[in-house]
Amino acid sequence: MSSTFFGLTIAASGLNTSQAQINTTANNISNVNTNGYSRQVVNTVASSALRVYQSYGTTGTGVEAKSVTQRRDLYYDEKYWNNQAALGYYEKKQYYMNQIEDYYNENSSNTGFTTIYTKMFNAMSTLQGSPGDDTVRKQFISNAKQLTEYFNQLSTKLKDLQNSINDEIKTAIDDINAISEKVAVLTKQINVIEQGGGHANELRDQRALLIDDLSKICDVSVKETDVLNSNDPDMKTGATYYMVYINGQQLVDTYEYNTLTVKSRATEQMYNQSDIDGLYDIVWAKDGDRFNAVPSSSGGFLKSMFEVRDGNNNENMHGVVESATNTTITIKDISITDLNEFNMPLKGQISTNNMLFTYDGFSFNTDGNGKVTSVTFNLIDPIRDDVATGLVDKTFQIGDDVDYMGIPYYQNQMNLFLRNFCEKFNKIEESGVDLNGDDMGAFFIARDLVDSHIEYQMTDELTAQDPANPDDPEARIGVTLTSNDNIYYLLTAGDVSIAKKTDKDSRLFATTTKENYSSGVDAADLVVELQKLQKKEKLFRGGGGDAFLQCIYADVTIDAQECNIFTENFTNIQKSISEQRMSVAGVDEDEEALDLIKFQNAYNLASKCISVFSEIYDRLILNTGV
């Protein structure tokens, strides 16, 4: 039989439980605007029944507040993290592509390529009518110089953007390292609390919020498993193993965490000809292994930064190893056969099967049509004979395949246009004589970026004639390029200019050939040929020079629009997922207000029970005594 005062114990349990529920509700209301906070609830169970020797057998003993836990659903967390990675990827890419689009855009406040290009050829038309007029000559030369300065400035802007992205990559790595350390520390604190039987709700919220932040930087997956008692596998210890993976690679292992670091590429490790020095690669600090920053999945904004910074649209050179020695690797069946389309640096890296080889120069062979048939790279570090033998017939590439039209792609497109345009322009000019009757040299030249006083008179003449084809001027063997060569491959948007001597003395610009020089200063047969370069000659992607901006701007606009569309789509998805997530974990003020009233009533009723029992005991003790 239960105690006479047993009812008071039952009422007290209800009072205590209601008090805990009111306190928890107050905590929820207090954190209604706290970022990352998950709604907490008091989990109650009926207390174990008490056996009594009566016909009804047992009697209830009240209520018990078993635990205070957070309301959170891992399913919605994972959906949120996956969407965050995609949203971060397109948001960051949209930010960069809008900048690149602004660089190429033409409007009233931004004089662009079409205006400058047309202006130069209009000045050329005027020059055709008055080739001997010094003022007209100077005007044309000034407009031509403005065209080269346009490309110089555009190249500088793209390099500045590449440098800015490079710095942001370093910042992102610092953020990842800081998050991984905090997650490991919080996991230890959580396990200490929960091994003692508690629930570290606030600490779990902090950890989940860190994963939210991490998911926008890169792909994130989390795995949490219970730590079991080694002596009793069916018994949980209260602690958990907590693993975090980014881009499929482990970042945190419960209390241990791995750190990332950045490693600057040396000059001889560049991937693209117009890349800036010191681009970062990401490696694991513990072993120096390379971190995969460009996974096949969404990848977060870290992936987008690498794609925009290094994107070459998969137009880097590929080939098959024809032969290899200790110090050279020769590639055949190459993907780029036009020398003007070469986008690899003079010093860089070639790779195959995760093997990297650094070269400090290369030579090439051409066929009778002037097409490059093979390239031989001079290796900095000698390789073993067995390694060299094993490379034959392997597929090789220069730098990384990045299937996106990023900064290197647009730099290479500008370089290609300028090489074709300047080569044809100079060929026409070099066939003529100036007003003094002297042979004209190159009009467009490459300026040394270190010493602007040094200029390279560009030429398409190649040495090393093919002995098997002595009568074929286009067939060459073993043509070696150095930084001092004047071949058009070395002309880029960053260094293109006009010859200083012609800039200073307009009389040195040729408007006629030596044969027609006797006709006088008004001969302009070369100017007529030069005017065909505006739109009649095929210079860029099968079209004339006037189509250059249309092609480039179409590329930029398509990518920018794609980013805008996907950013909007994933933003809408984020809102939907966040609403679903908050429907479970969020604090609703109206719901908490109703709970507060409900728990207040329960508390009042429990108090009323105690008051009733007090009257009963008063009657029992004071009025039934003998």
How would you describe this structure in keywords?
single chain, 626 residues, alpha+beta, four-stranded antiparallel sheet, elongated
Helix content: 40-55%
Could you tell me how far the N terminus lies from the C terminus, measured between alpha carbons in angstroms?
23 Å
DSSP helical segment count:
12
The major beta sheet can be summarized as: 6 strands, antiparallel, barrel
Shape: elongated
- The low-confidence parts are none
Report strand order across the widest sheet.
11-12-15-14-13-16
Please tell me how large the radius of gyration is.
Answer: 38 Å
Structural category is alpha+beta
Strand content: 15-25%
SS elements, strand count: 22
Average residue-wise pLDDT? 89
Quaternary organisation of the protein chains: single chain
What does this structure look like?
The chain is α+β, with helices and mostly antiparallel strands and 626 residues long. Among the domains are: 1-71 and 593-626, no CATH class; 319-399 and 467-490. Helices cover 45% and strands 19% of the residues. The protein contains twelve helices and 22 strands. The strands form seven sheets. The chain has a six-stranded antiparallel β-barrel with strand order 11-12-15-14-13-16. It has a four-stranded antiparallel sheet with strand order 5-6-7-8. A three-stranded antiparallel sheet has the order 19-18-21. Helix 3 runs antiparallel to helix 10 (525-531) and helix 4 (134-195) packs antiparallel against helix 6 (300-310). The chain starts with 5 loop residues before the first helix and ends with a helix.
